[in-house]
Amino acid sequence: MNANHLPRLGRRSFLLGLTALAAAGPARLAVADVAPAAQIMDRRLVVILLRGAMDGLHAVVPYGDADYAALRGELALKDPGQEGGVLDLGGQFGLHPKLVALHGMYAQGELLPVHAVAGPYRTRSHFDGQDLMEGGGLQRLESGWLNRALTHIPESAGQPARTGLALGLDLPLLMRGEAPVGMWAPPRPTRPEPDLYARMAELLHEDAVLGPTVLEGMRGRGYAMGALAMGAAIPANQGGFTRLAAAAGRMLARPDGPRVAALELGGWDTHAGQAQRIDPVLVQLDRGIAALRDQLGEAWSRTAVLAITEFGRTARANGNLGTDHGTGGAAFLAGGAVRGGRVLANWPGLKRDNLFENRDLQPTRDLRALAKALLRDHLRLSEGAVAAAFPGSEDVAAEGGLLRA
Amino acid sequence: MDTRPQIAAVRFGTGPRPDAPLPDDPVAWLDQQTRGPGPALAPPEGRDAPASLEEGYTAWIAHDASPPPPGQASVPTQLFRAEQQAWMRHLLTSTAPFHDRLTNFWLNHFTVAERGGFGVTTGFPGFLREVIRPHVMGRFVDMLLAASKSPAMLYYLDQVASVGPNSNFGRRSGRGLNENLAREILELHTVSPAGGYTQADVTEFARIMTGWGVERMRPPFATVFRPGNHEPGEKTLLGKRYAEGPEAYEAALRDLAAHPATHRFLATRLVRHFVADAPKPETVARIESVLRDTQGDLGEAARALVRLPEAWGPPLTKLRAPLDYVVALHRAAGGTDPAPVLGALNALGQPLWNAPQPNGWPDTASGWAAPEPMMQRLDIAHETAGRFARLDPRQVLETAIGPLAREETRTALRRAGSARDAITLVFASPEMQRR
């Protein structure tokens, strides 16, 4: 994807071809006939960043812990089988009742909730926590662990889509770095005609930053427009996250499509009125992962989804029926490639002495162990590539057994 | 043709307007904006005065007692939206754009964001009008003191929740320190990590500032010091001891403001903002020495920035962030309506006064030049051109980029099939996207 070598006239027609794709995306311009699929790996990885610190004790409820109900007070959810009760995960834990689709995946052996998990940081600051969760190091880094992983997955010359795909208008730190990644965001109501895009790109061509960035943007749009034009239209009126997840699934499903996607879902910072505020966010997460599965179709069987948050929340409710920034929390692994249908937890217990600093769920498992396992066992990256994704994690072994053999 | 007046308007200003001729003497024009109190900032439309803290807090209390029905904005949020409109209207029409750019710069340095909740939004009119604007040409220490004690900042970085664990209230309630504000003042507002502080310094600084909080339920509806929340005993920050009591916070802030690492950090950020993403060390050193020699006089620093030779040469080196970009588009077209500007900023990922994190918005091209965001920028150029399609595109070009226009851009304009397309091309051009 470099037009710099082209003479001016060739460049104009090159740009026009690109912009026609980027702007119009009719099926006849779609990308199906350009697929060198054989070289692209077959496995899919989706990472969902739950920004704002999801309360793991509210999403994956340890109802079987004798101290749970008293500790949580009015925030406690009822046992399975009762009205408004949690959805059982085998006797000790239950999913929040809004996580209906995830519970269905659990029954299919495709959901693996992980509990009492945290990254290596204990700062309880959202942006420290998020930066470190996405950067993958012990200090803030300029690139993200998933982008560094992508640099070890070769792209073939004719590959129409980038291997990596970020959904939404922000390129998260997780996906920043040397590996170019595609992006998709819902289109604005009106767009210029292809010819005008081509003229704009031509004007920007010589700018060392803007020229290549716009070419990359048009390439990404062109692919996305072609890919999304196939099959039933993705409804624009559903929740923003569900729409992004559906678009991701549609593109990941294609033989020539991206293989690694990143999404973000905010709204978890429930300092007050948590029971009301967390429900719609859990619904979005549930519907989003279901939309991913539905759009991935047959490729779901080769997909792993990892949903992580920067830290958990206080084990007890605060004075506003909410929770404050905490430490240990929950994460989700989902997908046909995941060995699910069980809960992965070394449960520390909820007694006062078991809590971290008499306040938070004690983490007994490192988030990096999950991510490292997915890079090693799912994307099949070398030990060196995994180590480069998570510098300073020599003492954190990749978690074994997360995936189906 | 002399490019200096145009460069003054785009590099140090918010972009030219058709109804405001460029200055003959750009340095004198910029200097003049650094002296005196700065131009008046009108209250929100339909009001005699900006919303006071008391008004905001009263609306907040009423909101908590009976929240509005879903889909209807709360009164505190409405007050905040009105203030955003007032500032955007000012940015579009202001005749002191250098002053405005510095205001935006310091608002970003001392980021407080809407996502911090009503504690921030109710405090924002005061934060803009009393904390930041009066000090942009004053001394840094005064801005630091005002910001660090402002209700918006005390809420945004959780100082309102911090309690000395051995204070009366701390012992009674079991509550403890919140280090958020202490850490960010050190890391983001003053010495930066180059200052060499440790986690122990962060904790000690957090102890120093215990007791400082906000009274929002009753008069004085302002920042207060609560002795019962203050951690007893002497504290040590960066090797210096501070006695117990309310005065220690201000004393520590004064020492941080005067720290050489602070001067270096501020100089780097100023030069990066106005001159280049990766400024030369000697350029930074020039501004650093001004800050050091004038005890942090920001007006002197502003005048020194204007006198940097590197600040005057084409080519344009800096990529405009969405705020600079969209404001410049509307100014070039003579726009005065804040609503489409605020909408475009949301679309381009830089919603006004709502940065995702306390470190504020990125100030280098790498923070903005991602593929799909740049495509959306082209879409916004096209939308904005549609809003002003009745203008003469040649006039828009002359105002917006004038002597900085490349021949290629002029040719593209001549060949465009419609006024809207022509204006779109001017708006999308690299000359317009850079400053």
Automatic annotation (TrEMBL), chain A:
N-terminal signal peptide: 1-29
Highest taxon of the lineage: Bacteria
Keyword entries, A-Z: Signal
Protein name: DUF1501 domain-containing protein
Lineage: Bacteria, Pseudomonadati, Pseudomonadota, Alphaproteobacteria, Acetobacterales
UniProtKB/TrEMBL annotation, chain B:
Entry superkingdom: Bacteria
Pfam families: DUF1800 (PF08811)
Positions of region (Disordered): 1-50
InterPro entries from the UniProt entry: DUF1800
UniProt-recorded name of the protein: DUF1800 family protein
Protein species of origin: Falsiroseomonas tokyonensis
